[in-house]
Amino acid sequence: MSERTGPNEDKKKPPLSGRRAFPSSNSNDEENEVPEMEAFGLIPRGFNPKDYLHVVDIYMFKDPHEINKQQHHTDKYYNPKLIVRRGQPFQIQIDFNRPYVPQTDQFWLEYLIGRHPQQNKGTYIPILIGDVLKPGQWGAKIIHKEKNSIRLSIMSSATCIIGKFRLYVAVWTPFGILRTPRNSAFDTYILFNPWCQQDAVYLDDEKEREEYILNDVGIVFHGDINDIKLRSWSYGQFEENILDACLFLMDKAELELSGRGNPIKICRVASAVINSRDDNGVIAGSWDNTYTYGVAPSAWTGSVDILLEYYSSKQPVRYGQCWVFAGVFNTFLRCLGIPARLVTTYSSAHDNNANLQLDFILDDEGKVDTKLTKDSVWNYHCWNEAWMTRPDLPVGFGGWQVVDGTPQETSDGMYRCGPASVQAIKHGHVCFQFDAPFVYAEVNGDIVYLRREKNGTQVIENIDTSHVGRLIVTKEVGGDGMMEITEDYKFQEGSEEERLALETALMYGVKKQTTQDTVYQPQKDVDMELQVQKVVLGSDFKVTIIFRNKSRNRYTASAYLSGNIVFYTGVTKDEFKKHSFTAKLEPSSSSSFDVVIKSSEYLSDLLDQASFHFFVTARINETGKILAIQKASALEIPALRIKTQGETVAGKEMSVTVEFTNPLKQTLENVTLRLEGPGVLRTMKKEFRQIPANSTLIWEVKCIPRQPGLRKLIASLNCDALRHVYGELNVQIQKP
Known about the structure:
Blueprint: E1 37-39, E2 55-59, H1 67-71, E3 82-85, E4 90-96, E5 107-112, E6 124-130, E7 139-146, E8 149-155, E9 163-173, E10 176-179, E11 188-191, H2 206-214, E12 217-224, E13 227-234, H3 242-252, H4 263-273, E14 283-285, H5 304-313, E15 317-320, H6 322-336, E16 340-350, E17 357-362, E18 376-388, E19 399-403, E20 410-411, E21 414-415, E22 420-421, H7 422-427, H8 436-444, E23 446-452, E24 458-464, E25 471-475, E26 482-484, H9 486-489, H10 496-507, E27 526-532, E28 541-549, E29 555-566, E30 572-585, E31 589-597, H11 599-602, E32 611-620, E33 625-634, E34 641-645, E35 654-661, E36 668-677, E37 681-691, E38 696-703, E39 709-719, E40 722-733
Parallel strand pairs: 3-11, 6-7, 14-15, 17-23
Antiparallel strand pairs: 1-10, 2-4, 4-8, 5-6, 5-9, 7-8, 9-10, 9-11, 12-13, 16-18, 16-25, 18-19, 19-22, 20-21, 23-24, 25-26, 27-28, 28-31, 29-30, 29-32, 32-33, 34-35, 35-38, 36-37, 36-39, 39-40
């Protein structure tokens, strides 16, 4: 985004700078010429391409009822081309002029995107035909051969660029490479995949995926907190040409193609291009009640007209206000496969200088001075949340991220906002990018009433801490009702925890003006430490908070512990433990406080990898200073034990046993065990109806290893109450 050129950027591309050996590639629309015959040298006179393997046709299985669009949940797109989601296999069939002979014929696939395809940028992807597909990595294998045809299963990378790729089939001959001619019918769109565990936008709940990806209508809540109104909005992400229009937005934003696999980057540039300020983006905002030469914001019923008009005219569409920006943004996100929802905050603060307080300046008579007062509180404000992991932040801050396309304030020089982690906003950890302080202030700012004295000094008259961000809502999953999500963003209004989060935000560098504008001083003479006991899943454990008072003062601290269950990607699912306590801190001494976490508190909500994330925030009451600490921890998941009996020789029967002891205080039901070992045994499955508490299961398997050498046996156990239970064993298979 930093390499933005002037207003005449379309007319003439600047010459290459000395910094790049290669022009930047930021258009999905542009193409390069791909030679149909790439000669290795001089071509002998008798050379006839028809003598070699020759592609007659490619069948893409691209109709809505066919396997690809069905399996990839893309059958709703009104688009004749193949649309697949990344990190998941899809199929194509190639018809040759004669049967394919693997011993002598060599062909491969090439996927290209943009004007300057390069392998290291992920914009040129050659795919050789192999024997196995590795999850989440590019590859292809033959799954069916018949006469002159072969059917391929192709796996795309789970981090692949999102966009429209061109497909070529290349055949090797001794004199050069023969390629299929450019044919747009073979173009393949690749989208984000919330169904794929390796994808950064993976969402584990099918009902939520149906709502946040596949639902093409929604509800906008508006009005004000005492009079909530609602209206429907048509997102229309599957309508004709909408997918192309959404890809065009990324071209318009000049997002490098190589960055288009990253949902963080896509959301950040999209939040800028949705509004027309500073980049001629999609919608021109207007809040002044005059909508000359345009459509009044309240007249739109959905996103499709706006996106199609922008796609054809390339000029901002007039006019929008916050729910229009949010509605169009939601269409963009869902269309590309990023789970998204439209959120409304009632009494949303627009904190002009991000000092976490809304300064309302009163004149002599106590009336608000409109000239001097720059901050404002909106009756309601709509933004979006997009679901993704945040590998750029510490663990615990993935999940819902605020993105806002409404132009309110500039961020890094442009009108854009987000993605900002909702979890970071809740706990006041606003040091994490992007724009968390602004969003924090939108839902948490204090309203400060200042009176201007004659000599120019300002006196604080009153502080209202409960007005801003009173209610935050979104449409419920699978219905048209309202779901309140205020507690995702903030603690109970007026609670100790809420004030602690605010003071944490201050400590993390959010400006909060005091009347003297003093710099915020942290508490230096008290240290706080957090220890989490390592235990096996199913046990109670304790969390210990240790305070070290290094001063000669006696202090008391108000502390709050929050325990959250997180996905292994760092995305928070639930807060399962809340505990507030007061600590007396004697001079020059340490005191520790144990909080017991019972298995019954976490087992019902536990996720696959049994990961927790703890926040502790404490205020030293005498000084008002804040201590804050966070820690991720995981329970020990019991392993499977694998053993072999007798000799292990290729071609001879051997015996493998798998053992598992149930650690939980409950019976495990409908347990599936799997065992596999490439070259030793094919995947075997066994179902067990029940494994009682503390009992041990033993499963014995006989097999005949095929290949000598060092092999690996891998076993897994799965049931509703327990996942990610694995075992493995290296086995040396002897030669016979």
